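Thread: quick sanity check before group meeting

JM: Hey all, I'm pulling together slides for Thursday and realized we never actually wrote out the predicted structure for the chain we discussed last week. Dropping the sequence here so it's in one place. If anyone has concerns about the input, flag it before I start.
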Amino acid sequence: MWHDSNAFPGVRYALRRLSLARRIELTESARDLCRQYEFLKSGDATDQLEASLSDLLVRKLYLVWGLAEISGMRIDGQPATVESLIQCGPDELADEIIKAIRSEIGLTEDERKNS
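JM (edit): ok, ran it. Output follows.
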């Protein structure tokens, strides 16, 4: 399913089809990282750094799992890909796509925290 970017006019992105099995797979993959993030974010500086890493890994997981294609954008002179978006793409676009993926799998913010 294609979406037009709100943050970057002319950029479109396609999300993968979501079946029940794929939703389960993603939720199971993200569950431990989300729990780790919630546990560590209130700890000392080292724990908070680990929490930040857990959050970033969950974000990457959503992009790798849910983003099928990007069009209308070049990164480092090449057509944008999932990998180039993760490596050096704009955070605003990544955030927008992650929000769309989360919306597609039907998790609210509270459900994501408890997944």
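AS: nice. The longest helix spans residues 45-66. The mean pLDDT is 83.
JM: adding both to the slides.
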